[in-house]
Amino acid sequence: MNAVSLLHRSAALAIAGLATIAAPFAANAACVANSGATTTALVELYTSEGCSSCPPADRALGKLDAALAPGAAAIPIALHVDYWDSIGWKDPFAQAAFGARQSWRVGVLHQRTVWTPHFFVSGGELRDWREKLRDQVRQINATPARASVRLDARLAADGALNVDASAATTAGTHPALYVAVTESGLTSKVARGENGGATLHHDHVVRSLIGPIDFADGKAALSQRIKLPAEWNRDGLALVGFVEDAANGQVLQAATTGQCLRS
């Protein structure tokens, strides 16, 4: 495994409590999604509750559809980093793996600096997100899809989430499949730090990121059972899948179920 692949793998840690399953999924109603013929943009925001400039970006991500052109296809995800936790407030949604992933993203673009809020659109860094996000998504949507993604999510009778994901591509030097569980409608009362005294609202927060899942003969697949913590709001959950090239960080295609799970 080369150094890029090793760093890429270490930056995406499977969350504890996942167990691969071979049995058929529970018979509950499923959330199913299939990617289309054109490329859906993946909008990644690296953010923190300990960062005073992050709330406007968080709000913009939550209202992404309204900011884009009619018919635009973009999937937002928010990855909370933990490297601001030492300045007075520990972000309850932060994971060290997300800061590692952000560092990898910056490194693969031959840059050195990470910050928050930090936007990437399908692997490309977007510094002027207020002015250029709409056009960047439009350009990505105009390209033919180089991969396909299918997602199937079901809530089991015991409250666990059964996930089935598959992807296909012949593009990319080292394609890998990722699956994220996101939660929207989150509220946090920040007691200390740069946002001390504020009540923050978050959407599309990544709670679990699974991957990289390597391809073989142009295909990749995942079947897992995720034990959901009791505090996660099932009605706010969505499944996101995307295919990423480990060599350059480009996201070849993405899909989401949206918030179709019901407890």
Radius of gyration: 17 Å
Largest sheet: 5 strands, antiparallel
Kindly estimate the percentage of residues that lie in beta strands according to DSSP: 35-45%
> What number of structural domains do the residues give?
1
Whole-Å distance between the termini? 41 Å
Which secondary structure elements does this structure contain, and how are they paired or packed?
Elements: H1 3-10, E1 18-20, E2 30-34, E3 41-47, H2 54-62, H3 64-67, E4 74-80, H4 96-108, E5 118-121, E6 124-126, H5 129-141, E7 147-155, E8 161-169, E9 175-183, E10 186-189, E11 199-202, E12 205-214, E13 219-226, E14 237-245, E15 251-256
Parallel strand pairs: 3-4
Antiparallel strand pairs: 1-13, 2-7, 3-5, 5-6, 7-8, 8-13, 9-12, 9-14, 10-11, 14-15
Helix pairs in contact: 1-4
